[in-house]
Amino acid sequence: EETADKFDVTKIFNSSGFTPIHLAAFKMQNKTCExxxxxxxxxxxxxGCLALPCESNGPLTSNSEEGSERKRMMQRRYYLRQxxxxxxQGEDSFTALHFASFHGNLNMIx
Length: 110
Known about the structure:
The protein is an all-alpha fold.
């Protein structure tokens, strides 16, 4: 069974309310952030993809394999943005970008 079938990395929180991406940004672990992002974008059976909020992203040809793959990647990117912009749970409400900015980590911000 593939790793992507075992758990949804976007639903994991530690006792402080941090997701793995929050913790990696807080600890300035660029490689960990890269691995987490690539897991969402490129894992073959990632189940977290939601329908896009609108179809204003241009025409997609559902009959073509290229159109289907493009739509899946757009869904994954949308879901990734939602996850990256998620606030920590608890009293403080920070995003991964807040942590990267606080530490002056320009590579992670990009």
